[in-house]
Amino acid sequence: MKTVLVIDDDKSVRDSLKMILEYEHYEVEFAENGEKGLQCLDRITVDVVLLDVKMSGMDGIEVLTKIRKKNEKLPVVMISGHGTIETAVEATKLGAFDFLSKPLDRDKLLVTVRNALQHAKLAEDYEKLQEHVEGKRCILGESKRIKEILEVIHRVAPTDARVLITGENGTGKELIARAIHRESKRASKPFVEVNCAAIPAELIESELFGHEKGSFTGATVQRIGKFEQADGGTIFLDEIGDMSLQAQAKVLRALEEGKVERVGGNKLIAVDVRVLAATNKNLDDEIGNGHFRKDLFHRLNVIPIHAPALREHRDDIPILVNSFIDDVCARNGIAKKSISKEVLNVLMQKDWPGNVRELRNAIERLVILSPGTSIDISVLNAFGGSAKREDTENLEITGTFQDFKERAEAAYIKKQLEIHKWNITKAADSMEMQRSHLYTKMKRYGLMKEGEEEE
Question: Is the alpha carbon torsion for 439, 362, 387, 307 positive or negative?
Fold first, then answer.
């Protein structure tokens, strides 16, 4: 049974509300003034508050302000016999759910109470869903390196300072960006992610800033860009080191002026956006090679955060492994599995060139393929591979560094495709890559399932 607290100094109104609400099977509590109403909220759990605006002593607006300081989520419906637009607007700004005028209409009152309860239920369900989702996205670890990152996040998140996150692929740069947004004053606003490496150079400007209808071939409708979508919130420019110089110039202008211009447009649009960026490249080298703007680098690099490679905080591997096991079992309806200390020791000795992402994929493979309730060394040898760095040792160390990187990338993609039995969707998801981007990479490196011919 839901509890409604009525705070009103008019006894006739309290009696009327008691009759209406109890008939609809609500439990009703009463307070004849604001002070007693606040005391009541300290004693019992209430689902909805009906609060009179005009009362002797503490008025309804003041009571609402105090309620909000104690409980931001409790739905409060304001009631007034002297309702004005100004009062209603003020109450709404302070977080009132709705505003009813006296004399109260029975049907409207009941509908408003039901809506308030439904709104509270939806907000609670959404919060639980957010906790569930964000729980998978939280930064795990107890090592000194991870604690240092968490401390920086805690300090920088409440500000609007720009952050540049560096680190190898798979180290959790996106997790850091999301944690900053989650702890910021913009947390209730959009978090918009842009993978600059996955968008063709000729489309990146349209993606970021939008375009007007007819601005180029194929632009059949107006499009709102990512900066506008993130207005009031945070935009995360992932792999910004792969952005074209032309797009960099426009991003720099947006940072300097707080305005964007759509492709084919002639109007500047004001945007209030916090910019977080990430890259796996050394931007100092990119600047030296003429591939990245020095002025943009300094604009982005207000607060630098480096995401360490997994081999630099091996002590966190047991924490990560157990979390991944729990998640894989829950998602796939598999009974909880344990992992032996021997296997953990082996996992802690590996270098994990794919970092946390590679470790997660390995654990998912072991959990799904292990026949029993325990992952022991025999399971690791059968399905997880040895602790040796065979894949990297088998790569030919010749040619330029770029040649080697491409061979390593091709080997990594091929391995993921084999693990997922050449299921493009699953392989792309495991590598956190768009399917179209994976197809492009496969075509580039000539990767195809055995027995298939390249078109």
Answer: positive
Residue 246 in this model has a pLDDT that exceeds 60: yes
Write the pLDDT tens digit of every residue in 352-410. Answer: 999 999 999 999 999 998 888 899 888 888 776 544 444 444 555 555 667 767 777 88
Per mean pLDDT, which range of 43-52, 56-65, 91-100, 165-174 is the poorest? 91-100
* 8 Å CB contact between 34 and 58: yes
Query: Is residue 124 domain-shared with residue 198, that is, in the same domain?
Result: no
Would residue 452 count as lying in a domain?
no
pTM for this prediction: 0.60
Query: Is residue 410 within 8 Å of 372, Cβ to Cβ?
Result: no
* Residues 254 and 227 sit within 8 Å (Cβ to Cβ): yes
The crossing angle, in degrees rounded to 10, of helices 173-182 and 106-137 is: 150
Joined together, the tokens standing for residue 93 give 């700004």
Token pair, residue 97, equals 């759910």
Structural domain of 384: 313-445
Alpha-carbon distance of 241 to 276, in angstroms, equals 13
Q: Is the per-residue pLDDT at 448 higher than 90?
A: no
CA separation for the pair 82, 334 (Å, rounded) = 61
- Paired sense of beta strands 210-211 and 76-80, if any: unpaired
Distance set, CA 81 to CA 17, 42, 67, 250, 354 (Å): 15, 27, 21, 55, 66
CA nearest neighbour of 98 among 126, 106, 89: 89
Q: Is residue 453 part of a domain?
A: no
Percent of all residues in the chain with a pLDDT value above 90, rounded to a whole number: 55
454 located within any domain: no
Do residues 106 and 150 make contact, with C-beta atoms less than 8 angstroms apart?
no
**Per-residue pLDDT tens for 401-435?**
677 677 778 887 888 888 778 888 888 887 878 88
Query: For the chain, how many structural domains are there in total?
Result: 3
Answer yes or no: do 42 and 105 share one domain. yes
CATH number at 267 reads 3.40.50.300
3-state secondary structure of 413: helix
Cα separation of 309 and 149, whole Å?
Answer: 13
**Cβ contact 29:3 at 8 Å:** yes
d(Cα 140, Cα 149) in Å, to the nearest integer? 11
